[in-house]
Amino acid sequence: MKKILALLIAFALAFSLAACGGNDEIETTTQTPDTVVTTGNVVPATDVTAENTEAVTSEEASTGEEVTLEAVSEEETTEAKGLDLNDKQAVLDYYNAAVRKTDEDWPKGQQTMKLSRDITGDGALVGTLVKIITPIARIVLENNSNETDWVPGEGDLKLSDCESISATAKNGVVTVKIKLKSQVDGSDGDPHNGGSVARGIGTLGSIDEALSQLGITIDEGRDTVALTYKNADLTANISEETGKITSGTWKYTVDIYVGDVVGSLKGISAHITNIRSAVDYQVVI
Questions:
Q1: I want to staple 112 with a disulfide (CB 3.0 to 4.6 A). Which of 105, 145, 178, 190 is the partner?
Q2: Contact 174, 237 (CB under 8 A)
Q3: What does the alpha-carbon distance between residue 145 and residue 281 come to, in Å, rounded to a whole number?
Q4: Are 148 and 108 in contact (CB under 8 A)?
Q5: Are 85 and 174 contacting, i.e. CB atoms less than 8 angstroms apart?
Q6: What is the pLDDT along the chain (285 residues), one digit of tens a residue?
Q7: Nearest residue to 92 via CA among 172, 176, 175, 182
Q8: For residue 277, how far is the Cα from the chain centroid?
Q9: How many other C-beta atoms are found inside a 10 Å radius of the C-beta of residue 27?
Q10: How many domains does the chain contain in total?
């Protein structure tokens, strides 16, 4: 997801900037792009502005808010070998250890990415162009929904990252469910340890690498870029015998907002405002 999400922004910037050159015709068909972008680790959404969003850091998350422990159904138990499933910190430690241990034998899975909000932007010309970009972006995301051989995250989740935690045990399998707190990044986030969603699933991080591959640079307004990761949760089934993750689901929605940017493409500079979109991301093992 790391480069795919950046490319959605890049598409919007590239088409907007290219339009300001005034010399090239813009192709209005929506054919499948020739190049498929490889991905690493990255669901509808409210508008996000740079003025009213603040990054949710681990320090800010540690506000003393209580992490809830969800109820257990009658068909499941709260007993597991050497683990108190009513102890939130113990459950989280158990999950983190399972992520790290599964690193020795990653299970196969599938990642899917879907544009859950059409790309939009201010101005009649930009508005027309992003309508062209949207179906192209959908195809790019579909082409990068592929097989995985890793478990999201690196096993470094903190209790302060979680809104709720529940765990049950049945037939030798411990099922852990965690709802993560939302996270807001600028253009230079840490994809692995930059906040709750980064630690639990992984986020985009810096957008510069993907933009540079298209010859695009942000000259001014980097502070108006906001990536809001929300609706993030995970469910992992862990074998009591091996302590490894055997199956699960990790997912979130990321809202994209580019507020007021001066960028350049192949020497052509332009000013664009209020580019918005959103992407659903999910890994199923």
A1: 145
A2: yes
A3: 9
A4: yes
A5: yes
A6: 544 544 555 555 444 443 333 344 434 344 444 433 333 444 333 444 434 444 334 334 444 556 766 655 545 555 677 899 999 999 999 999 999 999 767 889 999 999 998 888 777 666 676 777 788 888 888 887 899 999 999 999 999 999 999 999 999 999 999 999 999 998 888 989 999 999 999 998 877 765 665 566 788 888 888 999 999 999 999 999 999 999 999 999 999 888 888 877 667 777 778 888 899 999 999
A7: 176
A8: 13
A9: 9
A10: 1
Would you give the DSSP letter of residue 180? Answer: E
Q: What's the length of the chain?
A: 285
- Domain extent, residue 83, equals 2-284
CA geometry: angle 81, 102, 71, nearest 5 deg: 45
- Strand, coil or helix: 216: strand
Q: Which of 27, 262, 241 is nearest to 132 (CA)?
A: 27
Considering only the C-alpha atoms of the chain, give the largest distance between any 2 of them, rounded to a whole number of Å.
Answer: 69
**Integer CA distances (angstroms), 255 to 85, 137, 144, 185, 204, in order:** 34, 15, 19, 10, 12
CA 97/CA 90 separation, integer angstroms: 10
Residue (of 153, 181, 198, 171) closest to 68 by Cα position: 181
Nearest 5 degrees, angle CA 27-CA 29-CA 33?
Answer: 90
